[in-house]
Amino acid sequence: MVELYGRSMSRRDIAASAGSFSQFAGVRLMTLEDGVERGIRMLEFRSGTGLRFTVLVDRAFDIADCEYRGLAIGWNSPAGFKHPGLAEYEGEGGLAWLRSFSGLMVTCGLDHILFMNDEPGDSYVYGPRKTISHSLHGRIGTIPGKLTGYGEDWQGDDCILWCEGVVTQGTVFGEHLELVRRIEIKAGTNDIRLTDRVVNRGFYRTPHMYCYHINVGHPVLAEKSRYLAPIREVVWAAHAGSDYRKQEVGYRTMPAPQMNFHEQVWQHELVADGNGEVPVALVNDALGIGFEVVTRKDQFPCMFEWQNLQSGQYALGIEPSTNHVLGHSAARERGELIWLEHAEERRYDTTFRILTDTHAIAASEQRIRNLADQPAEDFPALSGNHVAIGGRG
């Protein structure tokens, strides 16, 4: 059954109420036609609850806009949803990735995440390519996808709204990796389900690193918004050098937009539930709205919290990652870099959930607290314990 307007409606009920289901919910394909976005194919999802989100086919099927009943969930940066043909991946010493950085979700990978890095190129057996140079967060997020399908899938009286596609990152004498992505939501609900497979289609042994940069904006992010996570220990903070408290912004409670704010990044070691799932949320108690991300610990063993609280760029990032914040070289040295042989793959299952009222917020907070009581201090002691990630090498 589909929950619409406070009623459980069968497929027949819905058909009797309108000439097309698209009056209530659906998926449609469109093309953006102005400014830096011109030419990008985009899928618009409406679940029937007041939830609307868009998927950029030509930017790795990442989720761009997201709103619930007029309240923005996702983040729009000054860069806009730039057409991939305008991307400057290797510019500005590797930081030009930031000129295409916007949206609720930006995928990072497929063979590199985090800051710039040069790695040995010997696995590709090509003499002139002695090193592989990586810019910030990898190439995948600005590669156009191949749309293999989208639409409505009726399963009895339930309707699944979905899309699927393939994004290829490949070169001669180098990696040939493929991202196969499916996004779906049951009509009448607020749970967006993301299923990714990263496959090595090439015949070279190839490294794989993966991260989602999930960016929550105002009004979910606002003064006194709270970050909730089942934190066993706070491992690391990028700003913990000479003055950990310099900006007087801790990890738990967010301030209003700040002038001259320097980004802060934390790594938390999180606890999974009995099913291996890890929930993290940002909630705005005053508005009764929140956003929860649920990942799997065996797929994303690491979690970062990104605070970009600068006026005009105000965002909070939830970042599940395959690797520690220590970076690419450290992952190699520690034997924690994933290597994929031909046809080998890794799978990632993630849920984005809109917490629509105070009851949903309370339920999420209780679920998280049942796993671990996060530190009560704004500036907890940092353990420095980057737990070894097994099963790799």
From TrEMBL:
GO terms for molecular function: carbohydrate binding. It comes from the Bacteria. This is DUF4432 family protein. It comes from Mycoplana azooxidifex.
